[in-house]
């Protein structure tokens, strides 16, 4: 499955127990709803943990943060994890300033993300 919005392209691949989501572009006012809907569809399909490769996301606004938070809360009852990995330093700074580093799991690599999600 692939989705596109004016500022972002999203792809994913699934394996047993998780999906690796690969957004590319900006996670801002224009693209956050597309991103959120895409992730919600994966959760509804019971994909398992969501591992989000943030290496090609160079900009995140409060709308993008809100989308991540909504999906993480949606996943909480199932016990599945939402894990961000390979996050751009400027995006890490946004996560840090907003307090989201305390809310979301953020790790360095795809292997670390799988380990953090218990996969």
Summarize the structure in words:
- Helix 3 (89-98) links the parallel strand 6 (82-85) and strand 7 (105-107).
- This protein has four helices and seven strands.
- The longest helix is centred in the middle third of the chain and has 14 residues, at 62-75.
- 37% of the residues lie in helices and 33% in strands.
- Strands 1, 2, 3, 4, 5, 6 and 7 form a seven-stranded mixed sheet that branches.
- Helix 1 runs parallel beside helix 2.
- The chain has helices spanning 32-44, 62-75, 89-98, 110-116, and strands at residues 2-5, 8-15, 18-27, 49-53, 56-60, 82-85, 105-107.
- The mean pLDDT is 92.
- The two termini are 22 Å apart.
- It is of the alpha/beta class and 119 residues long.
Low-confidence stretches: none
Tell me the distance between the termini. Answer: 22 Å
Helix content: 25-40%
Overall shape: it is: globular
Number of DSSP strand runs: 7
> Treating each run of at least 4 consecutive H or I residues as one helix, how many helices?
4
Overall average residue pLDDT = 92
Radius of gyration: 13 Å
- Along the chain, the helix and strand elements come as EEEHEEHEHEH
Strand content: 25-35%
- Assign the structural class, choosing from mainly alpha, mainly beta, alpha/beta, alpha+beta, or little secondary structure: alpha/beta
Largest sheet geometry = 7 strands, mixed
């Amino acid at each position: 499955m692939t989705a596109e919005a004016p500022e972002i392209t999203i792809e994913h691949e699934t394996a047993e127990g998780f999906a690796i989501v690969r957004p590319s572009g900006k996670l801002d006012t224009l693209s956050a709803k597309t991103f959120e809907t895409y992730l919600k569809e994966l959760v509804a399909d019971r994909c398992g943990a969501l591992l989000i490769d943030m290496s090609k996301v160079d900009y995140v606004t409060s709308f993008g943060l809100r989308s991540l938070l909504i999906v993480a809360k949606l996943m909480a009852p199932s016990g599945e994890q939402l894990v961000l990995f390979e996050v751009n330093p400027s995006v890490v700074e946004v996560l840090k300033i907003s307090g989201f580093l305390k809310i979301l799991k953020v790790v360095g690599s795809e292997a670390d993300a799988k380990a953090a999600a218990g996969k």
